[in-house]
Amino acid sequence: MGRIQLKQVEKSFGDVTVIPPLDLEINDGEFVVFVGPSGCGKSTLLRLIAGLEDVSGGVIEIDGSDATSIPPAKRGLAMVFQSYALYPHMTVRKNIAFPLRMAKVSAEEQEKRISNAAEVLNLTPYLDRRPGQLSGGQRQRVAIGRAIVREPAAFLFDEPLSNLDAALRVGMRLEISELHKRLKTTMIYVTHDQVEAMTMADKIVVLQAGIIEQVGSPLELYHTPRNLFVAGFIGSPKMNFIEGAEAEKYDAHTIGVRPEHIDVSETEGPWRGTVGVSEHLGSDTFFHINGTGLADALTVRASGEVGLNRGDTIFLTPQADKIHRFDRQGLRIG
Amino acid sequence: MATQHSRSAARFMMAPAVVLLLGWMLIPLSMTLFFSFKKYLPLRGDSLGNGLDWVGFDNYVRFVSSSSFWPSVITTLLIVGGVLIITVVLGILLAILLDQPMWGQGVVRILVIAPFFVMPTVSALVWKNLFMDPGNGFLAHVYRFFGATPVEWLSQASLQSIIMIVSWQWLPFATLILLTAIQSLDSEQLEAAEMDGAPILSRFYHIVLPHLARAITIVILIQTIFLLSIFAEIFVTTGGAFGTRTLTYLIYQRVLESQNVGLGSAGGVYAIILANIVAIFLMRIVGKNLDA
Hints:
Radius of gyration of chain B: 24 Å
CATH architecture of chain B: Orthogonal Bundle
Strand content of chain B: under 5%
Helix content of chain A: 25-40%
Largest sheet of chain B: 2 strands, antiparallel
Oligomer: heterodimer
Largest sheet of chain A: 6 strands, mixed
CATH topology of the largest domain in chain A: Rossmann fold
Number of domains of chain B: 1
Distance between the termini of chain A: 38 Å
Number of strands of chain A: 18
Strand order of the largest sheet of chain A: 6-7-8-3-9-10
Order of helices and strands of chain A: EEEHEEEHHHEHEHEEHHEHEEEEEEE
Shape of chain B: globular
CATH superfamily of the largest domain in chain A: P-loop containing nucleotide triphosphate hydrolases
CATH architecture of the largest domain in chain A: 3-Layer(aba) Sandwich
Radius of gyration of chain A: 23 Å
Number of strands of chain B: 2
Number of domains of chain A: 2
Number of helices of chain A: 9
Low-confidence stretches of chain B: none
Strand order of the largest sheet of chain B: 1-2
Strand content of chain A: 25-35%
């Protein structure tokens, strides 16, 4: 079981409030991702749940019982750190065994759980090596292995993939998702990378300056962002925001259209601009459009190769049903 | 140094330093060896000019068969061992303490290093006269305040006193090296261990201590080199009396007090052998920490 509830949890360091009072519910078996720009308090929030920081107020409940003042080891949570935090002088086997040794688990049971974890994570050939002799991805897996053997109520991941290269990151993302499907244990995952959030999460918590901007499934956030911040943060490339006269046509202070929801034409369309930088990805092409008079620059996505060059005139048509409207306060309308 | 050319240039430029260093080491060493096989009593009229008599291994046999030889070896080892244990243990504790965030950390750290800057002669005299003097020493006053009879430190507990003085001098060195090592410990490792359920003592034993292994090794090796040859502290306090005669001090007495250069030189060769035995043992015990 791993149901975690935060009730009016707040955290301040001296006079600086990092997290104003906040409520959050994490259900058993859920994969929850905390996402936000750096310094938004997402790691602090995770450390509060882990017990590595004391809350300044409020209650943290794990499986219905108050865990606010329980020390980290007793909360039944396991954490994977950004730096992996492996013990460099111990072999992989001893690293994974460490939490079991501390919990005074019997030797046979230790051996059983270690070989299980090693098998799940493809670490069996490396059990007698030291962390220094492993690659980044393998170290990451050892750190996860050390978390798995404890059979925790929930896993906490603190930006675990940020030290890996891009290719490895995609692979590990998949492995962690598969691990979650297999273990069905609650996982809380902190990242600043919205792609990781979108691909892995059951539920995304978007944070800014310690405040929860929106909680929802990846597609909910994509389709119905609650405000301008979430709209701009979720989705890549960023949503285009247009203010002024054009927005008023839609009875809004600001309208937002995602690059993939704008149709491109060389001959006709309501918006007209010139092509600036184009980014060719093969499957897609992203154009940065200048001189539309609507915003500094618009980004649009065209499928495949499009024969447009820098300086060409381009016509854009937003897909009417995909336009997001926001009021003066930046909140979603409708 | 990639190319043939740069390599030979490097050798050429290093040569003077290497030659100087070799001369520096080899000349005294060969002179010691030379004298150790000679009868050389300057007060009896022996001199290099008149030629010295070859006496074979006589000096070596005499030096070892003297009743002061083995006690001096044991005293040397006791002082080295005692100081090593005290400085490493207290050094670790002090380093942990200084690593805690506190007000005035910078000043405190400088104060901690201060004893290391005091010359051995001076610090030994300060200890002898200000602290350990049985009449007016600070410790004597403390003892009397509690109604106890003051200890005559340098005669009743002479070896312990010397170990205390030398430890006081070397503690800052150990603390400093260990403090930098502790500061380089990744705090996430400690947090991970905390999450893994390790209480504070286990965290120290399983995480901090292994992390410090290399620094401790360095402290032990460097201190041993210097501690084997401590002299000033003994010279100005007990003058080698009350069982504080180390091998170094014995050699000094043979050469300068008895004016027997040959015998002292033989002792010097024994000191080299002792130092090497200690070095071999140390490398066996702690040297593996320096690998990897």
